[in-house]
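Hypothesis: this fold can be encoded by more than one sequence.
Test: take the structure tokens below, design a sequence, compare later.
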């Protein structure tokens, strides 16, 4: 989809620091995801993608009119909206988010939610606005995450804050979170269900911000202790909690909203929510792996390899390396990347050490185990069906393939 508003004057670009592009490190490819359930043919997938795009366009149009801008900004009816103000609102709230939406992404969250609706016996046709809102919310979180991480590229192009500036990116990114608030009343007319859905949504926002807070604070001191003692448990637990809050909670919320609209009983709803949380958490773990191996689209890297190591960030492969590397080697590796700003050669050496000791493999195995354990708890609550099998297959495939965030 083309951004039809790109001819307008742009906000002054911001700045960001990141590592020089590192050479890809060759690692064994993970086992392919099982294909026991059909994921749909190319035509079916294209139709689903077009349907999602249509719902995204309805919530965040590329050229929003006065009615859309009033809804997006919750503008009271008695407030005038001049043409100039409308343009400024579009530039401030919509265009930065649309810029990243236009770059695509695998959009596995809507597919997972669609499979959950079908596994519960529902018709996904009425869930388009929810899926679109979830994708817009996710897009906003990526914009904010890139600002806070100092990342300069996203989905193969400059990060939104590089193009629009830090302040504009932060405001537009956080404003996108409230797309979900706009669609809850469309999903159910039952006030009790609406309240339950809003509670799930607000809890997910709190959890995700807590996880982001832990991510920003980092785990350097915990890693220091792990390197000194050789005990990996505290640092693994710290990274797991961060991933669970930051990345697992939003997917958990999406599954809960699906279950609420279906009137699902407590036990199945909790199991479905835990499955969503497990897939979201596992996805973040394998994203840590992808940071070290790289993801290429159309021959170009979608982000800089080793960005987390360059930033002195403790992620799951580094935490697993505590138990896999000799103490002296681990200490040397950690000290080489502990302070943000490691040069590309140092980052490449660290990646090679993490690959060689099996830390990437350990992280992948943990991600797989999370999903399988959650599925084992969920499957007894679902009637046997192709949709249930597809829900399992999608969860496994999500954490086993190269992807765009």
């Amino acid at each position: 989809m083309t951004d039809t508003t790109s001819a307008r004057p742009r906000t002054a670009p911001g700045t960001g620091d990141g590592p020089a592009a590192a050479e890809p490190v060759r690692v064994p490819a993970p086992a392919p995801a099982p294909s026991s359930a059909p994921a749909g043919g190319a035509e079916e997938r294209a139709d689903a993608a077009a349907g999602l795009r249509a719902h995204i366009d309805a919530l965040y149009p590329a050229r929003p009119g006065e009615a859309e801008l009033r809804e997006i900004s919750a503008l009271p009816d008695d407030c005038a909206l001049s043409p100039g103000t409308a343009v400024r609102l579009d530039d401030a709230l919509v265009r930065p988010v649309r810029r990243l939406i236009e770059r695509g992404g695998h959009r596995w969250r809507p597919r997972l939610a669609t499979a959950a609706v079908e596994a519960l016996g529902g018709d996904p046709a009425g869930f388009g606005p929810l899926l679109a809102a979830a994708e817009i919310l996710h897009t906003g979180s990526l914009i904010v995450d890139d600002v806070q991480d100092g990342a300069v590229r996203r989905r193969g192009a400059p990060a939104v804050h590089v193009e629009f500036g830090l302040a504009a990116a932060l405001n537009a990114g956080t404003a996108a979170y409230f797309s979900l608030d706009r669609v809850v009343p469309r999903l159910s007319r039952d006030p009790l269900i609406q309240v339950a859905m809003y509670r799930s949504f607000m809890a997910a926002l709190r959890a995700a911000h807590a996880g982001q807070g832990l991510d920003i604070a980092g785990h350097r001191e915990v890693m220091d202790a792990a390197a000194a003692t050789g005990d990996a448990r505290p640092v693994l637990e710290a990274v797991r909690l961060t991933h669970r809050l930051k990345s697992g909670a939003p997917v958990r919320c999406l599954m809960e909203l699906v279950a609420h609209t279906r009137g699902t009983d407590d036990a199945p709803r909790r199991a479905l929510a835990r499955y969503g949380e497990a897939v979201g958490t596992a996805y973040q773990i394998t994203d840590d792996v992808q940071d070290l191996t790289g993801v290429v689209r159309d021959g170009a890297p979608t982000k800089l390899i080793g960005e987390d190591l360059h930033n002195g960030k403790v992620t799951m492969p580094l935490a697993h390396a505590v138990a896999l590397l000799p103490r002296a080697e681990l200490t040397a590796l950690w000290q080489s990347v502990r302070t943000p700003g490691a040069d590309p050669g140092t980052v490449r050496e660290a990646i090679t050490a993490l690959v060689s000791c099996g830390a990437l493999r350990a992280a992948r195995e943990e991600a797989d185990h999370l999903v399988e354990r959650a599925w084992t708890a969920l499957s007894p609550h679902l009637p046997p069906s192709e949709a249930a099998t597809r829900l399992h297959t999608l969860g496994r495939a999500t954490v086993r393939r190269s992807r765009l965030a």
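The first helix runs from residue 42 to 59. Confidence is low (pLDDT under 50) at residues 1-47.
Hypothesis status: open.
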